[in-house]
Amino acid sequence: MPSSLSYKEKSKIRFDKTKLSLNAGDRDKLSIAYSDIDTTGQNVKWSSDNDDVVSVDIAGNITSYKSGKAMVKAKLGDAEADCEVTVLSD
Q1: For the segment 32-45, what is each residue's pLDDT rounded down to a tens digit?
Q2: Can you give the pTM of this predicted structure?
Q3: Are residues 30 and 72 in contact, defined by beta-carbon separation less than 8 angstroms?
Q4: Could you give the domains of the chain?
Q5: What CA dihedral angle connects 26, 83, 75 and 65, to 10 degrees?
């Protein structure tokens, strides 16, 4: 008779949006939801892969600068989430 195994899903974080479109000069905020993560003493690490197009601060506030695309990433422990940001015009 097989034994009963418990399965725990890998820790996850996710954004409230996976894609975002802005005009140059616009601002928005990304929020994350997470599950199965011990957040004690941890801070979310935010980054943009194209700071010329958009920047993101330590609270998830996005500022757009010029047309183009950027991937904004949030990392909490080993879990990561991505949001594609498109800036439509200068």
Answers
A1: 887 766 666 678 89
A2: 0.79
A3: yes
A4: 17-35+42-87 (2.60.40.1080)
A5: -30
